[in-house]
Amino acid sequence: MFKRFSKDDVSSSSQVKSSVQRGFRAKLLEQFPNSEPYLEDILPKKGNVTIAKCKDRVSLICCDGVPLFFQQRDGHIFPTLRILHKYPNMMPTMRVDKGAISFVMNGANIMCQGFTSKGGRIDTPLEAGAAVCILAEGKKVALAVGQTTMSTADIQSVNKGIGVDNLHYLGDGLFGTKELD
Amino acid sequence: MAEFAADVPDEGKGPPPATAASGGGGREEDSYPLTIFYCGVCGLPPEYCEFGSTAEACRAWAEANCPEVLAVEEGIAGLEVQGDAGGEAAGGAERAAGGEEEPKKKGKKVRIAKPGGKKAAGGEQRVVIGRLSRNRRKFVTVVGGLDTFPDVKIKDAAKKIGKQFACGSSVSKAPSGAEEVVIQGDVLMDLPGFLETTLNIPAAKISVLSTS
Ligand SMILES: [Zn+2]
């Protein structure tokens, strides 16, 4: 999604009305109940919140120019990795084995075997379509942000094909974009 | 883009919080946000540097700027290898180290100083070619280090390149003072061959930066 993303891919960026901000906060709390104590830190009420529109109907929610969350169409909201690194417990996690790291950092979606092999781990049962933070064997900080394509139960039982869509990963364009103008 | 310790203030240059370092992903700590370090060379978290394209340079940077982080990380890596992951992890590490760059070797000369950098380490003859994007889908190709070859006239080279690829090509001064050729267009793939045949620069002395 953000493999070759750069500042130049933002087609328009606009201020967010406070009523919309409130709605957005409510949605965040609904999707990330764990983030409740830090929400004010992540997205301060007095901050200058903007939405940057990018191609494929992807929008970035920024505060003072720093991308915090992204969303495709009206779908699930995902935090950027830099936010996730600061608040690692806001999302459920899954862990891939060591061998998968280089593929994930190339933008590949994650195969079920990456989670079911020895170094992989599924921490919480999840439904299909859930937002998940991808950790890696032997590493402390998150490797990627993804969305499950099947439930974790299916990932374990089917154990074939793509289990998690890789939306945002270390080294992609969004990770490289610390700030928009 | 090679800023030091990307997101943290200077005084945060110590090792990451102890709980975060002691494995388990730092989940037990209560005070968020955690302070996270990013490598000054590639911008990734240091533990992922070995997967980047500048592993060698990263290691040198970490040694120079935050040896604590390196030490912490090595400790963890060591534990992991003996511990749960066993042989598999070791195999993975070896595989990674067996690539063209050897992240685990210390004290090696840093070839590329910055991702966007063009200058080779002092005295060495090396041409570095990189590509930068200019509003959306347009590119400029930047060639640095041509001035390390005494028998290459940099202005002539720029002219020849412009003729060959039918695009604008000029000499400009990099911030470091070195002269580089800036080509309006994406000729990253074709340029090494051209430099080899026309300017007699051995292929071994040409490095192409794949990112940005
Ligand atoms: Zn690095």
> Count the helices of chain B. How many?
6
**Helix segment tally of chain A:** 7
Structural class of chain A: alpha+beta
The gyration radius over C-alpha positions of chain B equals 21 Å
Uncertain regions of chain A: pLDDT < 50 for 5+ in a row?
Answer: none
Q: Any idea of the CATH class of the largest domain in chain A? A: Alpha Beta
Helix content of chain A: 10-25%
User: Which pair of chains forms the biggest interface, and how many residues does each contribute?
Assistant: A-B, 33 and 34 residues
What name does CATH use for the topology of the largest domain in chain A?
A: Sulfate adenylyltransferase
Strand content of chain A: 25-35%
Within the largest sheet of chain A, what's the order of strands? 7-11-10-9-6-8
The CATH architecture category of the domain at 127-209 in chain B equals: 2-Layer Sandwich
Q: Summarize the helix and strand pattern of chain A as letters.
A: EHHEEEEHEHEHEEEHEH
What profile does the largest beta sheet of chain B have?
A: 5 strands, mixed
Describe the protein's topology.
The complex is a heterodimer of chains A (181) and B (212).
Chain A: E1 12-15, H1 18-31, H2 39-42, E2 49-53, E3 58-63, E4 66-72, E5 77-79, H3 81-86, E6 93-96, H4 101-104, E7 110-111, H5 112-116, E8 121-122, E9 131-136, E10 144-148, H6 152-158, E11 162-169, H7 173-176
Parallel strand pairs in A: 6-9
Antiparallel strand pairs in A: 1-2, 2-3, 3-4, 4-5, 6-8, 7-11, 9-10, 10-11
Chain B: H1 18-21, H2 55-65, H3 67-82, H4 86-97, E1 127-134, E2 138-144, H5 154-165, E3 169-173, E4 179-184, H6 191-199, E5 206-208
Parallel strand pairs in B: 1-5
Antiparallel strand pairs in B: 1-2, 2-4, 3-4
Protein name (chain A): PUA domain-containing protein
Subcellular location (chain A): Cytoplasm
Domain PUA (chain A): 92-171
